[in-house]
Amino acid sequence: MKENKPQSTSKNNPSFQKKVWIVVGILAFSIITILLLKATFRVFLLILAGALIAIFFRGLSSFIQKKTKWKEGICVAISIISTFLIVIGLFWLIGAKVQDQMAELVETLPKTVENAKAKLNESSIGRNIVDNFSSVDSIEKAQGFAGQFFQSTFGFFGDLYVVLFIGIFFTISPKIYINGLVQLIPIKGQEAGKQVLNNISNQLLNWLKGTFFSMFVVFVLTAIGLAIIGIPLWLVLALLAGLISFIPNFGPLIALIPAVLIGLLQSPETALLVVGLYILIQFIESNFITTLVQKKLLDLPPALIIIAQLIMGTLTGIWGLVLATPIIVILIVLVQDLYIKNRE
Q1: How many domains does the chain contain in total?
Q2: In this structure, is residue 86 part of a structural domain?
Q3: This prediction's pTM
Q4: pLDDT tens digit string along 101-115?
């Protein structure tokens, strides 16, 4: 009579061991991928910033070509050169005044902070605020946060150099990079991939148009308002407000701080006028300018933008805060084109 052989355990089963190794391999690959993304995510943000510059140059060259019927290469060259000439011209025209006011601002701010402390120390609530913000623990936390928030991949000027040249290279020969990216997609989906990339480019171009228009309006209104109030550094403060308004939600708050401090140097009433001016400009920008711009844009939920800014700013610092909105635009286009339009 034949004895029953004991059944092989799962540990001795080759197929089971193979499955275990597959799971371990997938887990290891996932961890390595996450670590690589975390280490290189700031580089991807710089690439995105360069792509935005290229989209701007290409959009401007398309406008020039549409009006003049000139060749594409000539229009691209004109768009790049004219943009640099305009920027250099503006700095040449107002650069000296801005430089003088910036130097005065740097010299005045410490006195202004001390003046603000003196005003706050006149009340018990103000003294508590000053004590809390002046404590060693609060200062160390603020320095640590600022150091992490303003850190960059290659240094500030190194980042600008990288972004600028990436943008120029993308502008000169975009088809090389687009075709290379499309080649990574399976053949059946390459045509759809091209359409998605084209849609992303169009939406980002529309977003840039609206953002630059909003920045210009904020600069003009701030300059007029501060000049009427009589703030001595009105030009540099208005320029700062216009540039920082590129960052929605948090930009106006950042720009308000130096303006209020300069207002406090004159009087508390002047500081309150500055606060009222910035609130009025933010109201006009949010309810009229943004509403006008959004007609040509995707519907971007404000809460979603704030959440993205908080997450990106915490993880990657200033670049994440600046580029949170275009990242949301890209994600919304991807979800709409790849999922919502194709679901049954």
Answers
A1: 1
A2: no
A3: 0.74
A4: 667 666 766 766 676
Distance, CA of 292 to CA of 283 (rounded, Å)? 14
Residue 321 neighbours by CB under 8 Å, 6+ apart: 247, 250, 309, 312, 313
Is residue 4, in this structure, part of any structural domain at all?
Answer: no
CA distances from 304 to 45, 62, 258, 333 (A): 19, 32, 28, 14
- In eight-state DSSP terms, residue 3 is P
Phi/psi for 295 (5° steps) reads -60, -25
Angle subtended by helix axes 136-149 and 124-134, to nearest 10: 60
Residue 304 within a domain: yes
Instruction: End-to-end CA distance of the chain: give it in Å, rounded.
Output: 62
What span, in angstroms and rounded, lies between the C-alpha atoms of 254 and 201? Answer: 29
Percent of the chain at pLDDT > 70 equals 71
The residue segments making up the domain with residue 102 are: 95-151+188-340
58 in Cβ contact with 66 (< 8 Å): no
